Amino acid sequence: MRRRISLPLKLFLIVFAFVLSCIILISQLSYRYVQKEIRTNDMYYTNQILDKVDQYLTVNFSSFQTILFSVETSVKANIDNTEVIKKQLRELYELNSNYVSNIYLIKSDLSILGGSMATRIFDEPLSDREPLFDAADKNRRTTFVSDPYKSKYSGWTVTMVRYLNGSPSPLAIAVDLDLNAIEETLFKINKKEQMNLALITSSGKIIAGFSENRGPLSIQDHTFSIGETSAEQVLDTSGTSLQLHTKEGLPVSILKKPTEKFNWSIISINDESRLEAALSRLEAYYIVLLVAGLLLSLFISFFIAKYIRNPLYTLKTKMKRVEQGDLTTRVTIKRNDEFGDLSRAFDRMLQQIVELIRRGELHNELERKLEIQVLQSQINPHFLYNTLGAISNVIHLGQIEKVDVVIGSLISILEYGIADASEKVSLRQELQNVSDYIAIQNIRYNRHFQLIEHIEDGLMDFPVFRMLLQPIVENSIFHGYNGGGIEGSITIHAYRKGDIVMIEVIDQGEGIPVDKIKHILTAEPSDLEVKRKRIGLNNIHGRIRLHYGEQFGLQIISIPKETTCVRAVFPVDLFKGDVCG
Predict the structure, then answer these.
(1) Scanning 198, 284, 322, 424, which has the fewest C-beta atoms within 10 Å of its C-beta?
(2) CB 195 within 8 A of CB 189
């Protein structure tokens, strides 16, 4: 007579074999998947960094072009007044000294009119300027970018040069780039992201980078090599990525990307041994996971075999948990009887409930995000419209000397405004943006709107929405001071009061009638003109309430013909977990 195997033992063996097989299969598949994803993500992340560096260079290129055109306009306007040209070159250099080494004019005899202190004193002809002048003369309609070279007064630099068309004597406008500033940016990325980046010319010369973190590189005379492969061979290789080995046999991966505006390439060199060591540690981890899976399989099998005889108690316990609000519980009784039917029906019911809750949450979150996106998208075009109006008025009035001020402020405002609108900024950054905005309005209206700041200690770094203050200040000028018809002060006051932070914008203008205050923050889709004028306050009020609740937002207090105060109210605990630098 065959020996009978008990049902608990059968369940134990079946469950043990099933669970262990699943763990082995999942472990192997996940290991291969993670291995592939690590390499893919590493390459994707590196490409993202290279794209960011290229965007940074593109913005700088536009700034340098603006400087060249500004100098060209200034020189043409004062072609017979050398002292005025010197003064404007000095002022323009001092304004942009953070990322240029010098701004100057090259004469045909290779002497210069310089903006930096050294070249204002030593303006004698230098032979290293001849290639720059000749290049500008041959390319009179374009801007020429030199290869990196050692300048007597600017050090290791790259020069952007443009011929001054229409001048009675041959002149070229030149800007020496501050490569130290570019290199400092690359070093910050290298340190933060543990990368090895550099800018390389088409001939393999290092413009900036690599110096502080050579790694597998051999750097000589502003060029480099990896093993037996020179920089020129790296650049000549087709494709954007390649694998090489150092002289010691260590594997390295290289990614390269041509820049959009300069004839340069961005190179990233990563040590593959670090990635291989990480994969080796991952392999050891999965071996430990398999051992743990074996033990876990034994435990689960024993647990199921022991408690399979008590399905009713198990079902009752699970139902009690659901009654208490735990919807993630699952009941699995694989039996062809009433308990099996009941457990499957119970599971289906829970799945439907969880799915309904999930869909409701997704719907609410999507609706919230869409409302925020609509509110944010309404601010930027309105802001750009007003700043462009300021530039138009300056040009219309013929105040050429103020063009640089307006352009400088506009560049700062545009760089600030085109960033991610959902990103928090510090109150300090908002105040700087308002300062640039008021500078433009003072020139636009030919008025003096004085900006007064009363900021409580410690609140300069308080996190706020980008473009919080500028629409409120614009409202003060447009309504309080009759669109520039009168002038006055604008006070920005920030302080704590209990568990809230208040940021107030106060003007001494016309004020708002009491019966109209309650309608200011209410959108009126049917009245497009009124809506356009109040769009900033509507959006700011809506963004604050959507993010922090109905008890926060904007408040308006006004005494007609005396003063108006627009107050933004935030929770003070923002400062604890969302500090901006």
Answers:
(1) 284
(2) yes
**DSSP character at residue 129:** G
| Inter-residue contact 375 to 542 (CB < 8 Å) | yes
Evaluated on CA atoms 70, 73, 74, 76, the torsion sign reads positive
The dihedrals phi and psi of 223, each to the nearest 5 degrees, come to -140, 180
Instruction: Provide the token pair at 556.
Output: 């308006």
Tokens of 339: 């308990």
Q: Count the alpha carbons within 13 Å of 62 in the hemisphere toward its beta carbon.
A: 12
Buried/exposed code over 535-554 (b: 16+ C-beta within 10 A; e: otherwise): bbbbbbbbbbebbeeeebbb
Looking up tokens 């390269």, which residue turns up?
256
Residue 561 is predicted with a pLDDT of 85
CB 477 within 8 A of CB 483: yes
3-class DSSP state of 383: helix
pLDDT of residue 1: 45
Beta bridge partners of 269: 254
Distance of alpha carbon 560 from alpha carbon 403, whole angstroms: 36
CA separation for the pair 456, 427 (Å, rounded): 11
Name the pTM for this structure.
Answer: 0.44
**Residues with Cβ within 8 Å of residue 460, at least 6 apart in sequence:** 426, 427, 428, 431
Task: List Cβ<8 Å contacts ≥24 apart for 298-302.
Answer: 298/16, 300/15, 300/16, 300/19, 301/11, 301/12, 301/13, 301/15, 301/16, 301/19, 302/12
